[in-house]
Amino acid sequence: MKKIAIAMFCLASISLSAAEKPTNTQSFESGLHQFTPTDNKIGYFIHGPNDICNQWALFSKGKRVVDAGCGDGYWTLEALRQGAKKVFAIDKCQSHIHKTQETTKLYYTQVTYHHESIMDIDLPIDSVDAILFCHVLAYLSPAEIKELILNTKNWLKPGGKIFIVTTSINTEGNEQFNACKKEYEEKIVANPLSFVAINFHKYMEQTKNILPEWHSLTSPRSLSMMLQDWGFEVEACHDITIGIRSKFCGAIAVKPN
Predict the structure, then answer these.
(1) Per-residue confidence at 96, pLDDT binned at 50, 70, 90?
(2) Distance CA 68, CA 131 (A)
(3) Which residues contact 181 (CB under 8 A, 6 or more apart)?
(4) What pTM was computed for the model?
(5) Collapsing DSSP states into helix, strand and coil, what is residue 192?
(6) Which of 200, 151, 152 is nearest to 177 (CA)?
(7) Which of 1, 89, 214, 252 could form a disulfide with 235 if both were Cys (CB 3.0 to 4.6 A apart)?
């Protein structure tokens, strides 16, 4: 399969040591990845390969697709380069939409830009072939995630797919992140068919100035169970490593015919 350079959000505070971690007004490089700060308080984009987003871009050829949380437009651009017929680029941050417009200016007739929250937009039923949620779900509450997935499922044509990359509880973090894992394990027993909201600031004080307070975490096993419960057929669901040691949960699921 062809490798595609794409972008994604990173919880830089748990993938870098305190000595390596800059303020999120700086761009920097670490290993094979380039980190670029977002214009809202969600961390960093990472420009580098990832199999879930690669597959979304390749699947987009000749199709109508959604980039939910388009950021600086790298995923939108890759879908267009792979021959997407139409991309709906959605982001609640106006400057991100401007960046996406600049990134995709050679393809602007094939892109519809939406400056609004993914929670507030509504596309016609059975109107798109695929939706990418890359580092969007972690910043919603567990209840909002379920509402969003069920709502956007209606947008998908039968046989359409959702592609998800979101924060995994399996990140190989430091002692503070390991404390998050203990709380996660206690809560997931009570409600296995849900993301678990964790207060990052409680465990990792250094994240207060660069990340939102609450994050919704999951694991491949839990995400797979949720997607099946919400009426999808799960094609793939596994952890992926991005950056130095951050693990993210990647999934591809199909709306049945």
Answers:
(1) confident
(2) 7
(3) 169
(4) 0.84
(5) coil
(6) 200
(7) 252
What number of CA atoms fall less than 13 Å from residue 161's CA on the CB side? Answer: 18
Predicted local distance difference test score (pLDDT) of residue 180: 86
Query: Whose CA is closest to 89, among 62, 55, 116, 63?
Result: 116
CA proximity to 32, closest of 3, 67, 70, 57: 3
Tell me how far the alpha carbon of residue 155 is from its chain's centroid: 18
Torsional sign, CA 30, 33, 34, 37: negative
Strand, coil or helix: 124: coil
Classify the C-alpha dihedral 208-209-215-217 as positive or negative. Answer: negative
Which of 149, 122, 121 minimizes the C-alpha distance to 136?
149
What's the token pair of residue 106? 């050679």
**Within 10 Å of residue 125's Cβ, how many Cβ atoms?**
10
41-55 core/surface letters (b: 16 or more CB in 10 A; e: else) = ebbbbbbbebbbbbb
| Amino acid symbol at 7 | A
**46 neighbors 34 (Cβ within 8 angstroms):** yes
Phi, psi dihedral angles at 68 (to 5 degrees): -85, 110
Q: Which residue has tokens 């997407």?
A: 84
Its sign, for the CA torsion 57, 63, 68, 71, is positive
- List the structure tokens of 91: 């982001």
Beta carbons of 100 and 69 less than 8 angstroms apart? no
User: Would you list the DSSP string of 228-252?
Assistant: HHTTPEEEEEEEEEETTTEEEEEEE
